[in-house]
Design goal:
The structure holds two protein chains of two kinds.
Chain A (H helix, E strand, L loop, with lengths): L1 H29 L2 H30 L6 H6 L6 H7 L4 H22 L5 H24 L24 H16 L1 H13 L4 H32 L10 H26 L3 H24 L15 H22 L14 H32 L8 H21 L10 H6 L2 H18 L2 H17 L1 H7 L6 H10 L2 H23 L3 E7 L4 E4 L2 E12 L4 E11 L2 E6 L2 E5 L4 E5 L1 E4 L3 E11 L2 E10 L1 H44 L1
Antiparallel strand pairs in A: 1-10, 2-3, 3-4, 4-5, 4-6, 6-7, 8-9, 9-10
Helix pairs in contact in A: 1-2, 1-6, 2-4, 2-5, 2-6, 5-6, 5-7, 6-8, 6-12, 7-9, 8-9, 8-11, 9-10, 9-21, 10-11, 10-13, 11-12, 13-14, 14-17, 16-17, 17-20, 20-21
Chain B lengths: L2 H31 L21 E2 L8 E2 H6 L4 E6 L4 H15 L4 E6 L3 H11 L6 E4 L3 H6 L6 E5 L5 E6 L4 H15 L1
The chains are: A alpha+beta, B alpha/beta.
């Protein structure tokens, strides 16, 4: 029953999305207030229909309805409930439906929180979102229907890919997708502005919170994915320059650029065409990210959801969305009022530099990801791309980017002198140099030393602007505290986000100092490695819910005191004939002890041991970045969105108190 | 060209770029569906030609080797490019180990990798190679036209490259393609 209901709700969502695309856009064109007013209701209606549809799919998985092809392929009765639920988006059909659901959430969010937008702009934004929705929903309904039935239904499902049976990855796709799809809102704003033919400072102020929200989610999503790769793939690294990882990094880079260029639009009414192009480009890259994963064009570890036959439909869809918006840009953007000139040494100048560098990094990553298949197509020639290429090309671009990250915020708007700004940072520079020299002297690792210096520069420099604002140590501390709490949240948010980047850089630098070894041990044997004593106390078997595991017991001591008791294991999933290593990690935030169990031979077991310095900082930094973004977002909502509503509520509340 | 026209042309440039990229994707997809494009069987300039001459240092404890060492045995051999940072290389390791058991000589070249990392890789995934050489700068890989790691070349007893396989080897490929070719060349 519920699959039919879900299928029907999906069809209904297609119809509502089509109406959402046509009615508000026509209404805005003809200045028909009633048609424009239909936009929010249609957006919320589409969300309700899709939520019902998705709910039905999840329910089919929960009650083990194997007559649904999608459930039969990706679930089984002996799976834990959580993986039955997450399995619904661990495959192609379900993940596309989730993608559409999040897009519908975006439309509904604009409908709910965009009440202070001019009605024509709001109608157009919701209309454009409806247009994109309609295309992808049609794709879901026609060639990627998650509700297809099989008859006779199998007695049991085929189980989810064991690699995906992990709480980290269960949460990874929804967060990452929310980040990807969230950039649909800035995209819709850009297209709406092009249709209207007007981009002004107010537009910049409206679009920035949405871009910021999407950016926070994308940052968290990428961090979750990297963290999953770190502990689940058991390979000890955190970033592999895998095409799928790069696909998520690209919109992050351009999205970060968008975030910063929108500030210039808001404050200085400049860089308008560029910001519009960035908004279109970021969403286009998000779409390509989804597409590259889904079409199987780029082979990688993540290739489990690939299917080339559907690629053609997606490609046409992408051509319409990306090509259409870029055509509109080509036709309309020349008519946008050219932005005013400004001095190269100024806050906006620094933001332009930031944009140039971020987009250069994006171009380099893009080239590295797509060049191999394209070279094969165009020249029939071949070339090699791997981590060496990315390290060689990305790192030189990061150096000026990091330098500018601390200098930019201390420069005033309009026109500035570099010298006073840099002088305000002298102590950050001195501290960074000190840390770098000390690290080089102590560690004898140039890369790590440079990394720690950069991290210090970023973290200390991030708060340089703030210390100036609160006049730290120049006025009494109490007065400083008063000034600090009075600062806008956006200032704190920016400082924290920049510092977060520094924390991540420190983590990456620390990883360069990490040590690892591979040993073959028999029970009762102990070795000394990385300043710790590792003793293998035993190996035993342990049954799991849908696998059997071989578990090694590893006691780690330092100077005779117990540090950790590890149980790395190898899980054998009989049904899939797949063996997965389950890593055991212990962290104290300064170092990770990381163990992976390998093959057993003649009563001996191969163990891989890592001492990873500062590894958790990589993801901690990403989290801090996202928190900084969220702080800034909270500030923006106070200043831009909510005041109108607050004022409306206030008299009611006062009158109820006085009564 | 006046300023506005130039501006118009500039603003249409992103569309042009996207269209070119889209056309490229379309071409790839079409060829993939017709089965004429498979990312694994990229055409190699090298097939039918002598293998490039090179001489590489060894990965301790193995000593290095040169192109003449490969043909010195007087029978067909495999040249396998791998790296410790490559996940498909781990996946193909059992297949290489089986080839080793069938007495197929495999010459390993560690591509752009450090000595400890390669040592760790070989220790964990087994060492199926006759010898392991290090291509630190990637020069030899460029001469071979390596597209990515892992990549395997089948060289006959005269030193002529007969097959190039881009990507990890699987048991199917070995059974259906590699072993028949090896048999016919022996």
């Amino acid at each position: 029953m519920s699959p039919e209901l879900g299928h029907f709700a999906l069809a209904l969502a297609v119809a509502i999305a089509a109406a959402q695309a046509v009615l508000p856009l026509a209404g805005a064109h003809h200045r028909d207030a009633r048609l424009m007013a239909a936009a929010p209701a249609l957006a919320i209606g589409q969300l309700l229909a899709l939520a019902t549809s998705f709910g039905c799919l999840v329910w089919s998985a929960v009650i083990d309805d194997f007559s649904v092809f999608d459930v039969a392929e990706n679930s089984s009765t002996n799976e834990p409930l959580i993986y039955k639920i997450t399995g619904t988006w661990g495959n192609h059909e379900g993940s596309i439906l989730l993608w559409c659901l999040i897009l519908a959430c975006c439309g509904a969010a604009v409908a709910a929180f965009g009440r202070n937008l001019p009605s024509a702009l709001r109608a157009r934004v919701i209309g454009v979102l409806g247009l994109v929705s309609a295309g992808f929903l049609l794709y879901a309904l026609t060639v990627s229907n998650p509700f297809l039935r099989v008859w006779p239904p199998p007695l049991d499902g085929r189980n989810i890919n064991p690699l995906l049976q992990d709480p980290g990855l269960a949460m990874h796709p929804p967060v990452l997708y929310a980040g990807y799809v969230g950039f649909a809102i800035p995209f819709a704003f850009a297209v709406a502005a092009l249709i209207e033919g007007r981009v002004d400072a107010a537009w910049g102020r409206w679009v920035r919170p949405w871009a910021l929200g999407a950016w926070c989610l994308l940052t968290s999503g990428i961090a979750l994915g990297s963290w999953w790769a770190y502990y689940e793939l058991g390979w000890g690294g955190f970033w592999f320059w895998d095409p799928v990882e790069n696909a998520s990094l690209l919109p992050w880079l351009t999205g970060t650029a968008l975030l910063h260029s929108a500030i210039v639009v808001e404050k200085r009414d400049a860089l308008k065409t560029w910001t519009v192009l960035l908004a279109i480009g970021t969403f286009s890259l998000s779409l390509c990210g989804t597409f590259m994963v889904r079409s199987g064009l780029l082979n990688s570890v993540h290739a489990f959801a690939s299917d080339p036959t559907r690629g053609v439909f997606i490609l046409v869809l992408l051509a319409l969305v990306i090509g259409g918006s870029l055509l509109l840009f080509g036709l309309r953007a020349p008519q946008l009022a050219p932005s005013g000139v400004f001095a190269p040494i100024s806050r906006e100048g620094a933001l332009v530099l930031n944009n140039v560098l971020l987009c250069s990094v994006a171009a380099v990553v893009f080239t590295g990801t797509l060049y191999p298949p394209f070279a094969a197509l165009v020249f029939g020639a071949t070339l090699s791309v791997g981590p060496p290429y990315f390290h060689l090309t990305v790192v030189p671009l990061l150096v000026p980017l990091f330098l500018a990250m601390s200098v930019g915020p201390v420069l005033p708007w309009k026109r500035a002198d570099l010298l006073p700004g840099v002088l305000r940072l002298w102590w950050a520079a001195a501290l960074a140099a000190l840390v770098g020299i000390a690290a080089e002297a102590g560690l004898r690792n140039a890369f790590a030393a440079a990394g720690f210096a950069a991290a210090t520069w970023l973290i200390v420099g991030a708060f340089a602007e703030l210390t100036e604002r609160v006049r730290l140590f120049r006025i009494p501390l109490a007065a400083t505290w008063g000034r600090a709490t009075a600062q806008p949240l956006a200032v704190w948010g920016a400082a924290i986000a920049h510092a977060g980047m520094g924390v991540t850089v420190a983590g990456i630098a620390g990883m360069a100092l990490s040590a690892s070894t591979i040993v073959s041990m028999h029970p009762g044997q102990a070795i000394s490695f990385g300043g710790y004593d590792w003793a293998l106390t035993g190996i035993h078997s342990q049954p799991g819910s849908n696998y059997t595991a071989r578990v090694a017991d590893l006691l780690v001591t330092r100077n005779g005191k117990q540090v950790a008791l590890f149980h790395p294991s190898r899980r054998n999933f009989a049904r899939e004939q797949q063996t997965i290593s389950d890593t055991a990690i212990q962290t104290n935030l300064v170092r990770d002890l990381y163990t992976v169990m390998g093959d057993e031979r003649d009563g001996q077991v191969v163990l891989r041991l890592h001492v990873n310095i500062l590894a958790p900082w990589i993801w901690l930094g990403a989290l801090i970045m996202a928190i900084g973004g969220a702080l800034s977002l909270a500030d923006r909502r106070l200043r831009v969105g909510a005041p109108a509503r607050r004022r409306a509520l206030l008299p009611v509340r006062v009158s109820s108190w006085t009564r | 060209m006046d300023a506005l026209t130039r501006r118009r042309m500039l603003m249409l440039a992103p569309l042009g770029l996207a269209a070119a990229a889209g056309g490229g994707f379309w071409g790839l997809l079409m060829r993939m569906q017709q089965g004429t494009y498979d990312p694994h069987t990229l055409p190699s300039m090298l097939v039918g030609k002598k293998l490039p001459s090179f001489s590489l240092p060894g990965q301790p404890p193995s000593s290095g080797f040169s192109s003449t060492d490969i043909t010195a045995g007087g029978r067909p051999a495999l040249v396998n490019f791998f790296a410790s940072w490559c996940i498909p290389c781990i996946q193909e390791a059992p297949t290489l180990a089986q080839l080793r058991e069938q007495q197929v000589p495999i010459w390993g070249i560690a591509y752009k990798d450090t000595i400890p990392a390669t040592a760790g890789f070989l220790q964990q995934n087994g060492d199926p190679y006759v010898r392991v050489a290090r291509d630190q700068g990637g020069q030899v890989a460029i001469d071979f036209g390596v597209y990515g790691v892992p990549e395997t070349y089948l060289v006959d007893k005269d030193g002529v490259v007969r097959l190039r396989w881009a990507g990890g080897l699987s048991d199917d490929i070995v059974r259906d393609t590699l072993l028949p070719m090896l048999k016919s060349l022996a």
